[in-house]
Amino acid sequence: MADHDPSHWNRYNAKQARRAVRPLLVDALTHAGGGPGRVALDIGCGAGIETRWLLENGWTVHALDADQQSLDALNRTVAPAGTRERLRTSVVDLNDLPCLPTADLVYSGYALPFTDPAHFGAMWRRVREALAPGGVLAVNVFGDHDSWANSGTGTFLAEAQCLSLLDGLQILRFDVEDEDGMAFSGPKHWHVFDIIARRPGPSS
Length: 204
Ligand SMILES: C[S@@+](CC[C@H](N)C(=O)[O-])C[C@H]1O[C@@H](n2cnc3c(N)ncnc32)[C@H](O)[C@@H]1O
Description:
Layout: H1 8-14, H2 23-32, E1 39-43, H3 49-56, E2 60-65, H4 68-77, E3 87-91, E4 103-108, H5 117-130, E5 131-142, H6 159-164, E6 170-183, E7 186-198
Parallel strand pairs: 1-2, 1-4, 2-3, 4-5
Antiparallel strand pairs: 5-7, 6-7
């Protein structure tokens, strides 16, 4: 994995501009319902493709990332009328995540696993605390068969450990990808859990 290089994520995010919205988020919105008057988090938003899509669907979005340049680019390119005022961006470090705004939808695409193991538990508590009653969580977590698992960077969980993160939530989707594929940095083995879950309670 190449994220020891501080410019890695900036270069990754700059190459994302033309890809489609991640299917996990598209699926999550079928469970979460409509955006107007409701709040979403996009944690590790990168180029902001999912943030933009949430804005287009009427959500108020807090977009969070460590990469200031990617957040600047997102702020520059969000169309103003009726949209910009619903976007907040913040630089955060997953290894020292502050208290997050309460949200009806907490989305994080391929970002939470880049938390160091020593900080993963505290990060996950912040994520769970942010979820409003009835709110929907949609995230990717990396598994321990992943070829980056021995890179010394990030957190890689066995399936049972991953499922225990969801205790008390209603699991709506739990897909396991365990196969060879491509990454920005080249070919690799992907072991990824695609998760959608709901916090019990009435949604707003
Ligand atoms: C693989 S990219 C995913 C970006 C976007 N969500 C997507 O699906 O394309 C990982 C993102 O996590 C961010 N990131 C990596 N480590 C981080 C950390 N410690 N704190 C906050 N963000 C981090 C990177 O800047 C990058 O934007």
